[in-house]
Amino acid sequence: MAGLTTHVLDIMNGCPAAHMSIRLLFEGGQVLVQTRTNAEGRCNDPLIAANDMRAGLYRLEFGVAEYYRAKGVQLPEPAFMDVVAIEFGLAETDAHYHVPLLVSPYGYSTYRGS
């Protein structure tokens, strides 16, 4: 299965990060996708379908402060983690890339998943 997927886990509350905003940009800042996670912290569709994969540099932007404020978390202004941006490259257009995000208001972790 080729394509690009993501999911977000809220490690502050120990749950999927439902309804978090996500933007996917391609080289030069071209916005490819604007979406939100579902109740499971995943996107309903791949961010890039297998047929649309192309090599290059990408940037995922996650609306972390917006998400936590919507859950009633008191954050300073500006928030320490406003938008978490992950920049990565796709080299293999026939591969599956999964970029998960584990996040709290004060830190995050990511990796290439499976």
Q: Tell me the radius of gyration.
A: 14 Å
In sequence order, what are the helices and strands, one letter per element?
Answer: EEEEEEHEEEE
Overall 3D shape: globular
Number of strands: 10
| Proportion of residues in extended strands | 35-45%
How would you characterize the largest beta sheet?
4 strands, mixed
Low-confidence stretches: none
- What count of structural domains? 1
CATH topology: Immunoglobulin-like
Q: Which architecture name does CATH use?
A: Sandwich
Structural class: mainly beta
Brief characterization of the structure:
Helices cover about 5% and strands about 40% of the residues. It has one helix and ten strands; from the N terminus they run ββββββαββββ.
Description:
The chain has one helix spanning 64-70, and strands at 3-5, 8-10, 15-16, 21-26, 30-36, 56-63, 83-90, 96-98, 101-104, 107-110. The chain is mainly beta and 114 residues long. It has a single domain (3-110), classed as Immunoglobulin-like, CATH 2.60.40. The protein is globular. The model has no long low-confidence stretch (mean pLDDT 97).
